[in-house]
Design goal:
Layout lengths: L9 H7 L5 H16 L24 H23 L1 H12 L4 H8 L5 H21 L12
Length: 147
């Protein structure tokens, strides 16, 4: 399970200002969740969690189940980024997955000011279409259905 304060998300900030639809935000958060579950974020410290001593861990499938979940999340993430396309996946990764603000993302990509909002909207629309095609229109907000 991944805990995130959606109020601090760049997508949440844009949605509160009427710049993104709820479906765009849900699609972006679904992508961010798969990014986190797959362990694709950069680590700044060493992992100190204990390796399982053998057998099954309490309350789950252990390390093997976690590894399979990460592999499945990576597959979903790669599929979604491929559906967005090469030109649009960069802004999705920066804003939705890494939590960069639009100004930072525009600067990092070498884009003019205010271009990011339009391109992010297009990328999120492609992501919405991908998720609706994969999981159905009524399940775009149901992140647990993918597990």
């Amino acid at each position: 399970m991944v805990a995130v304060n959606l109020a601090e998300s760049p997508l949440g900030w844009l949605a509160r200002r009427g710049m993104l639809t709820p479906r765009q935000v849900a699609a972006g958060e679904r992508l961010r969740g798969d990014h986190a579950r797959a362990g694709l974020s950069a680590r700044v410290t060493m992992r100190w969690d204990v390796a399982p001593a053998g057998g099954r861990e309490r309350g789950g499938a252990g390390a093997q189940g976690q590894a399979l979940g990460a592999i499945d999340a990576k597959r979903r993430f790669d599929s979604a980024m491929a559906a967005a396309g090469a030109g649009l996946s960069d802004i999705l990764w920066r804003v939705a997955c890494e939590g960069e603000g639009l100004a930072e993302a525009e600067k990092g990509l070498g884009w003019p000011t205010r271009a990011g909002k339009l391109v992010l909207g297009l990328a999120l629309d492609r992501l919405v279409a991908h998720y609706e095609n994969q999981y159905g229109i009524f399940h775009i907000d149901n992140r647990d259905a993918m597990e």
